[in-house]
Design goal:
The chain is built from six helices and two strands. The chain has 155 residues and is mostly helical. A two-stranded antiparallel ribbon has the order 1-2. β1 and β2 form a beta hairpin. α1 crosses α2.
Length: 155
């Protein structure tokens, strides 16, 4: 029997997969969970809170890395103001990073990509963090390509 909210949620996901039309499709599983398990989740405060935290965390992270000024002109204005804080010689690089904030693991938070908020060592730390994630994705991608080359073509 699952004892933690995380374990209970994983059990709900496993159960929902059995009833989903496409058991390896996240939106299909989510539809089953919302249709069939909503009451169970809402009735278990710890599970509900865990799920809410996880969902909020993903949405907050997405929001914090993008332009918080909003869509359209407001976002463009916030981005332009951010770029103006940097010396002209590095603005193009900052623009290519295309983020308002970056994750700094030692701070355990997103830090605004402006000179006074982020030290050079924290920029290196944030960059290395992203490179580690990217390297893992590249490694798995290359392995999948190798696997495809090793797999006989389907008739």
């Amino acid at each position: 029997m699952p004892t933690t909210p995380h374990e209970r949620l994983r059990q709900i996901i496993r159960d929902a997969r059995q009833h989903a039309a496409r058991p390896d499709n996240a939106p299909a599983i989510a539809r089953v969970i919302l249709a069939d398990y909503r009451d169970a989740i809402v009735g278990e405060n710890e599970v509900h809170d865990h799920l809410l935290r996880a969902g909020l965390n993903a949405e907050i992270r997405r929001c914090l890395t993008r332009y918080l000024g909003g869509d359209g002109a407001e976002g463009t204005q916030a981005r332009a103001q951010q770029l103006l804080l940097w010396p002209e010689t590095v603005r193009q690089t900052v623009g290519q990073i295309d983020r308002e904030r970056v994750w700094v693991p030692s701070r355990d938070e997103f830090v605004e990509l402006v000179p006074e908020a982020l030290s050079a060592s924290e920029m290196r730390e944030a960059g290395n963090h992203l490179l580690q994630h990217g390297a893992d994705c590249i490694r798995r991608g290359r392995l999948l390509l190798r696997l495809a080359d090793m797999t006989p073509a389907a008739a």
